[in-house]
Design goal:
This protein is an alpha+beta fold. The chain has one domain: GMP Synthetase, Chain A, domain 3, CATH 3.30.300.130. It is built from 3 helices and 5 strands; from the N terminus they run ααββββαβ. It has a 3-stranded mixed sheet with strand order 3-4-5, covered by helices on one side. Strands 1-2 form a two-stranded antiparallel ribbon. α3 links the parallel β4 and β5. The longest helix is centred in the N-terminal third of the chain and has 14 residues. The radius of gyration is 22 Å and the shape is globular. The chain starts with 14 loop residues before the first helix and ends in a 14-residue tail after the last strand.
Length: about 120
């Protein structure tokens, strides 16, 4: 006698789990439109050393929207970027042209990889 599980025996998921798995992710079209407008506005912020904008360089990592505040999480091309203050201020100003609530720019400690922007030297 061996311990085998028949291949025709399947464990059915709970009904609530099956409905949850089948439901598509809810995407707010207005929030997505605002996010795309923010990214479009951020194309005006150019890294002066590289000559490419922060969107092309993949420096914008996340945009978090709430009724009270819009937060942009970004990185820099180098930890000691001499233009950091200027670029952060420009990002804030560009986002403010799109949204009417407070704007916060958070600088992440993540290292930039040129391959994220499709750059190979």
């Amino acid at each position: 006698m061996t311990d085998q599980i028949s291949s025709d025996t399947a464990i059915a998921p709970e009904p609530a789990q099956a409905e949850q798995a089948a439901a598509p992710l809810a995407i707010d079209p207005q929030a997505r439109a605002t996010e795309l407008a923010i990214l479009d506005a951020l194309r005006a912020v150019v890294d002066p050393e590289i000559g490419m904008n922060v969107v092309e360089l993949a420096l914008i990592k996340q945009i978090i929207q709430s009724p009270q505040q819009t937060e942009v999480k970004m990185i820099l091309t180098t930890p000691f970027c001499p233009y950091a203050g200027s670029m952060i201020q420009q990002v804030k100003e560009q986002v403010e042209t799109v949204v009417e609530n407070d704007v916060k720019v958070t600088l992440l400690a993540e290292r930039w990889d040129p391959r994220d922007a499709g750059l190979v030297w």
